[in-house]
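Known limitations

Files may contain more than one protein. Parsers should not assume a single record per file. Below, a two-record file is shown to illustrate correct handling: read the sequence, read the token line, then continue until end of file.
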Amino acid sequence: MSPPRLFHRGGGPQSIFSIGATKARVAVLDRPAAPERVQFWCGGWLDRMQPARFTFPYGFTGMIPSSEIGEQALFISTLLAALSLGFASAAMASPEVIGCKGDLTKILEALKPLEPKPAGPMRLLASRCLPILHGRYPVYPSPDGRKAFTSHPIDGLWVGSVDRAGANYTFPMHVFTSLWTPIVPFEWLPDSSAVLGVAQDKASGGFALGGLQPYLFTETGGQTPLPVLTHPNGPLDDIFWIGGTGLAFATFGTRGSYFRPEREDPHPTIALVDARAGRVLDAVEIATIPTLPDYRHFVAASSRVDRSGRVRVLTAWRPDIWMLWDQGEKPRILPIHNTIKHPRYTLSMDGNKVLIMGNLKGIGESCDFQIPCPPPIPQSGVIAELREVISGRLIWSITGTTHLGSFSLIPAISPDDRYALITIPSEKNYVGLVSMTDGSVLQRFEISGWASPTLGFSPDGKEAWITSGSGMVTFTIGTQQ
């Protein structure tokens, strides 16, 4: 088995290309072939014809043994490889398949759509089945790649080893989740020793009895309380971790309607906190920020810490309001004019740019009472765009057309700000490796029907990962040929 890998979380002339129905201002890509129907096993049979039940394309443990390859075939393949050095980047060894069950030949066939096309810096490395029971919620690998966590709104927080023989533990709790704000209140410590998170006492009906309490959670069942975070304007109601160090963007006195009896929030407040030290570093009442709506219109937050340790937080509010908060300065409204109702976005590593997904999707009727479901009406528009944070200036955008009705994922940006991983809806759902310089879609692979995927890069930028349900796929990131 390969050694553990490190993971963490997510100008000039241009030409027009087409990927299925997706168009962008980048170079031409080959369209990858994909089978119409593939079945495999990873905790249950799954079928690409039923995307709602599709979880992940895994199924066997181990590699093809070299003993099954004849000496003559091995010699011929070696000779062909030597004669094809000019096409070495396109050659692909069988990916490692770990912790799964099934027929290896079928598994490798099912993995073919995951090989990025055309040949380029990203190559399929390995796929792994994770020992997660409730596998339909986002999964987040630890920085060292040895562990993962996932949270379920009813079953609680699961923290464990990625190996089936390793330790794992489920912490029973009711976790607040939102379709519109797909950010969980948990984050790995940089050394992968524990998960930063929060828990809250709740009544049997789910109403809050008190504010959020920060903890450290481990895969062996350890639950270490951190200092209580308090503010005169109310209890801790929301927290968004910044880089896993204990720093966070937080709110106090903003969710009184979640309490019984209902709590009044006369002065809802946003804050920058150090949860490990139990300190409020800075706090501002929302009502004192010009043009900012009340907290019910809050959508999401993305943040970075610069080399001096100063925090930058970019928040999105409905409708089309973007607020920047640099630690030590007053929050300010930015001229980022993006009309996406529920934007998924990520700050660049230097904090100076923001990658915003367009949430492009087809328009269709509800299928709750109609089988078969009618196909959505195709829609064209922005798939993703990169903007300067301060000025809001558009740097590049990717546009296209899709028939699908799914939402975009939160994009991931590599540690060197060179690449990004984004979802590309077209005739099917794809993930694309994008150049942060000019928006060129360098490669893509298919993820049609995946359940709650997450995207990310390793801390050294040499690998990328995508999770879905109880599975994880990793890719190597090399230099562009």
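...continuing to the second record:
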Amino acid sequence: MRPFRPVLVGVDESTLGDPFLAPAVKGIVVTPRPGVMAKIDIPISPSGEVEGTLLSVSGTEQPGVALELVDERGNVVAETVSEFDGFFLFQRVPYGRYSLRVADEAARKLEVVQALPGPRGAAGFTIRQGEDIVRIGPIKLRSTDTPPPPKADQVAARGPASVSPE
């Protein structure tokens, strides 16, 4: 290392014994100086995976779609592209609550809604201990021309109200 030049120090993830452990930060910048030893701590945290299959508006496997994994604060934490058979995978995702969406440019190009449902049609999902592999889908893309499906609580509220008294 050359002195007085900032260096990004990180963890080589291949050296971690457990595939579900990942560095909590990408790295720490250190500026080495002769005769001075720097002590750094890089936290390692548990992580999970999100996988699924993406279908086109017509119901066939949809390859080549850019997808984003979004945390509770609205930050994109990971990106991937669906494979030839519509399969997608996000690896080493830190524990937390997330939602899935089609990237803006891909949604415009395909003329589909950005937001995608999570498992069992929920708006989001949580990765946590004991639930560190989340499987979603198949997810069918929805055209921007298609009205959104009714929410479960709206359907239940309409049921009894539509019954006419005898």
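Parsers that stop after the first record will miss the second one. For reference, the second record is described as follows. The radius of gyration is 22 Å.
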